[in-house]
Amino acid sequence: MIARVLTIAGSDSGGGAGIEADIKTISALGGYACTAITAVTAQNTLGVFGVQVMPPEFVALSIRTVLEDIGVDAIKLGMLANAAIIEAVGAALPAGKPIVLDPVMVATSGVVLLPDDAISALKTHLIPQATIITPNLPEAAKLTGLTLSDEDDYVAAGRALLAMGAKAALVKGGHGVSDHLTDYLVHENGVESITLPRIQTKNTHGTGCTLASAIATGLAQRMTLSDAVNRARTYLQSAILNAPDFGSGHGPIWHVV
Q: Is residue 75 part of a domain?
């Protein structure tokens, strides 16, 4: 049976991130993508120029209609826009399904996508339900209140996220500066590090969305968490290497690899 993945996130008119990146990723890895759209954005490689947020009750309705008919094997959470949507999503999530939480707070262009009250709601309503949370370094620092400067700090942030209720945390090292990029998968049985060469490129738009969706697809296909994360990282690396170099800013990656 084809694995069903529901992505709950915002739409990117430029096609590089959000729902569009999620659908491409899930499809490329052999899954079937369903969606609940939280917001519509007007954006391209240069930035976000407008956001229209969906009503929370409509987001919840979108989730229910998918669950009641098609069903899901895993859920990916991305841009959730505000506290009201976060609360509605948290209440609508089904029990017993893998949930991958990508805590989208700031766009690659620097636009803030999640206000402080929504971050508090994220901690209360979603982190305790997460099978895995996938913050980058700034997001991990914001969520935990820790200063992150080295490997020990990254692992400490992962453990702090587990203490908040997440079953696992993938603290991503993409905002580091070394020639190699290391992500830290922290879970109840220990820590796994995943190191790959850093690709020097401006084409990184949608990498967080893509990685989280790839992990969700792996979990929907009943891969172990470690295997799902490792396949997702390899897939993302190829997608960055094959980026089409569109636009004048942070270009999209190529999902069909």
A: yes
pLDDT digits (tens, 9 = 90+) for 51-61: 999 999 999 99
The one catalytic residue among 38, 144, 204, 210: 204
Q: Domain with 44 in it: what CATH number?
A: 3.40.1190.20
Q: Looking at the domain assignment, is residue 250 inside a domain? A: no
Known catalytic membership, residue 34:
no
Q: What is the pLDDT of residues 126-165, one digit of tens each?
A: 999 999 999 999 999 999 999 999 999 999 999 999 999 9
Is 204 assigned a catalytic role? Answer: yes
Range of the domain at 156: 4-241
Counts for the chain of helices (H) and strands (E), in that order: 8, 9
One of 78, 173, 208, 218 is an active-site residue; which one?
Answer: 208
Enter the tokens of residue 167.
């079953």
- Total number of domains in the chain: 1
Q: Does a structural domain hold residue 248?
A: no
Kindly list the strands in the beta sheet with 180-187, ordered across the sheet, starting from the edge strand earlier in the chain: 47-53, 32-44, 4-12, 74-77, 99-101, 132-133, 168-171, 180-187, 190-197
- Give the CA distances from residue 122 to residues 90, 184, 215, 238, in Å, rounded to whole numbers and listed in that order: 9, 21, 20, 31
Residue 102 lies in a domain: yes
Is 124 one of the annotated active-site residues of the chain? Answer: no
